[in-house]
Specification:
It is a single chain. Strands 1-7-6-5 form a 4-stranded mixed beta sheet. About 40% of the residues lie in helices and about 20% in strands. By secondary structure, the protein is α/β, with parallel strands linked by helices. It contains 7 helices and 7 strands, in the order H-E-E-H-E-E-H-H-E-H-E-E-H-H. The chain is globular. The chain has a single domain, classed as CBS-domain. It holds the Pfam family CBS. Keywords: CBS domain. This is CBS domain-containing protein. It comes from Peterkaempfera bronchialis.
Length: about 140
């Protein structure tokens, strides 16, 4: 059984909900990632901010990224999987909620990694990849 821990990208870091979008963009650049989990004051995940969120929801609307916080753009309920989750659970979570990045937490509910569609693709057959892509990307 392949687990989330085995396919995740390590080194994921939270960004505080009160941090500005320009700082989020700088962190993404420095970490070479396109998304950051967002943490509340209790260091618990309360959302995810993506590079696309910054561009489409803020910059394209003329908002100043130095004045808008990541918390202002986070929407919905954050999704995650435990580190010992089977890869099938990972696929189900990503497919059901049509998400491309999935945080992984340890037994203490702390962020330990993140799984992207590229991480998943490395561990699937061509048929499984096609099914995954259809569930996540194809509009219905």
């Amino acid at each position: 059984m392949t687990t989330a821990r085995e396919i995740m990208h390590t080194g994921a870091r939270y960004i505080p909900v009160t941090e500005t979008l320009d700082r989020a963009a700088q962190m993404m650049r420095d970490l070479e990632v396109g998304a950051l989990p967002v943490a509340d004051a209790n260091d618990r995940m309360c959302g995810i901010i993506t590079d696309r969120d910054i561009v489409v929801k803020a910059i394209a609307h003329g908002k100043d990224p130095a004045r808008v916080t990541v918390g202002e753009l986070c929407e919905g309920t954050p999704r995650w999987v435990p580190a010992d989750a089977d890869v099938r659970q990972v696929l189900e979570e990503m497919g059901t909620h049509r998400i491309r990045r999935l945080p992984v937490i340890d037994e203490n509910k702390r962020l330990i990694g993140i799984i992207s569609e590229a991480d998943v693709a490395k561990h699937l057959s061509d048929t499984e990849i096609a099914s995954f892509v259809e569930r996540v990307y194809v509009t219905r």
